[in-house]
Amino acid sequence: MHTRKLGQGLDVSAIGLGAMGMSQSYGPNPGSRDDMIAVLRSAADEGVTFFDTAEVYGPYANEELVGEALEPIRDQVVIATKFGWDIRDGRSVGLDSRPERIRRVAEASLRRLRTDVIDLFYQHRVDPDVPIEDVAGTVGELITEGKVRHFGLSEASAATVRAAHAVHPVTAVQSEYSLWTRDPEDDVLPTLAGLGIGFVPFSPLGKGFLTGAVDTSTPFADGDIRRRVPRFEAQHMAANQKLVAPVRRLAEARGATPGQVALAWLLAQQPWIVPIPGTRRTARIRENNAATALALSADEIAYLDGLAARAGVSGDRYDAEHMAYVNR
Fold this sequence. Notes:
The chain is α/β, with parallel strands linked by helices. 38% of the residues lie in helices and 15% in strands.
């Protein structure tokens, strides 16, 4: 696995691992806690050095899992976590990025992650009630104090990124980006290029859809986030097969999997883009990592670039409640 640089010279593996699904959002976990610890450690054995979690995943349980799994190799990995939700009685009820809240979350995350420093601390969603300058200033103080190394934002608009970066340098912006979610391309990616900020796409495989393994017959268990994502409603999934079918054909022609093609396309967009696909299986980690060796031709990249426009994308990427949290 080769490495890539996010902003501020942060070196990470070219593909990271999103750990959220080990604790929530994709239905019952087929493995035990010990199994997930083994998967996290196997990811490091496979060359992954960039691990993504958040206090809200679980909540709290995912940070504890990641902390326990990576404690023996802490000096070899980069751990990103996030603040910004108002969590009460075990569930998020809104946003809270007040400076005092950021500091409390940082201290609690350090304990759960079993570390003395957070490598990358993202604001999980932009809080309209707290000036982004105050958020950036608070994280900057934590960096000065040695509790955090780098500052990041998630699902932030270009204007918000610029305002935050003017107060304290932003290392990375994390947002959904894939062959069927192209929102960052108009404003966010050009802004990051101009400011020297890295980009971390989550759901780079379209929550499994772009692997070609999900269709209208796929059952989603209770607790699976896809049960409330419009794109996964039957009528939208049927329409979106027009998008995944060409990816499957290209993958077959290249002796790869559709997921590898989708990741290789992302990697080809910019050298400072680092996707973080999530999985609960070591075999899938190996498959995803192999995308770094799949060199798409200029013609193949151009073909995939225009795929969403030609095929169309049916359905929104979040339900109305969660779309409201996206800073646009």
